[in-house]
Structure formats: C-alpha cells, structure tokens
Amino acid sequence: MEGFFLCRNFSYFPYVNTHKTFTVQEATLRVERYCAYQERCHKEVARKLKELRMIPEAVDHILHHLITHNFLNETRFAQAFARGKFKSKHWGKNRIVRELKLRDISKYNIQLALKEISERDYLQTFEELSEKRLRQLHGETNLQKKRKKLADYLLYRGWESELVYEKTYSLFPAV
C-alpha cells in the first residue's frame, strides 16, 4: 500500500504533503512584508526563504530583488540592531559585535553600527547598570562573591573588561 501510512487507531490515510509551496512572486511578497516589519539581515532572510522551501536560484533572485528595492540593507540593519540592543537590553559593545558577527555582518558595517552609540550615553548606561546590579546584591556579605557577581553580570552583557574591573575595584577596593 504505497502512499499510505498506519495511524494510531489503525486506520489508513493517504499520505498528504503538508508543506505549502510558493511561487517566486508569492515568496517575494511574503519576504517583502517580512522585511518591512523590521530590519533584517541577509542571513535571516535567506533562512526564511529556505523555510519556504525555495530553491537556491530563487533565493538568490529574491535576495537581489530585496536589495535593489531597498527592503534589505545590512548597514541599516546593523545600525538599528546596535541602537536597539544598547537602548533596550543595555548590551555593551562586545556583545553587540559578537551578535552581529553571528549574523555574518561585515567589519565595516559593525564599525558603522558602533558609531550609533555615543560615548557619553555608553558610559552613563554602564554606570546606571552597575549601580542597579549593586543594589540587587545588597544581601551578599562576602566581598569576593559580590565583586565576582557584579563582574560576571557586566561581562555577560558585553561590557569591556577594562571598564568592568575598574568599576568593581573602585566599588570594592582590594583588601
């Protein structure tokens, strides 16, 4: 019985292809909406097209269309990503760079993206974040543990180690 499979209640059902197929025009429209909703990088769009089961030639054609019609722009994506992650999640430059590299963004675009963050705002956010975390650690009595927890918190969020260790040792001088 080709084309049939046995289901749990032992009845037979014909095998049905559950994946919808898309023409190039349909996929292009879907991905245009996907890109218009928020800034996307090339890697995200290519992954989306693969999820739509598009062949590599169609993926290249659609990506070219998106770039020429300004739906897809990696410089714009990198700048929006850096601004957004800094403002909303308070990420440091190291974390932003790491995440952009994971998305295959060029070094040039990463440098442009980091210029979106003013040095004054960057240092002010660092100070506010450190003070906030320090208030959360008020119950910790061991000075070494408190220093380590503060440093780990800031390093995980991508703040530069020089800033982090300077801050931890200014708050908790070495005994």
Percent range of helical residues: 55-70%
CATH architecture of the largest domain: Orthogonal Bundle
**Arrangement of strands in the largest sheet:** 1-2
In CATH's first tier, which class of the largest domain applies?
Mainly Alpha
- Pick out the low-confidence regions: none
Structural class: mainly alpha
At CATH level 3, the topology of the largest domain is: Arc Repressor Mutant, subunit A
Can you tell me the number of structural domains? 3
For the biggest sheet, the summary is: 2 strands, antiparallel
| Rg (CA only) | 24 Å
Quaternary structure classification: single chain
The rough form would be described as elongated
Say how many strands there are.
Answer: 2
What would you say about this model in short?
65% of the residues lie in helices and 3% in strands. The protein has 175 residues and is mostly helical.
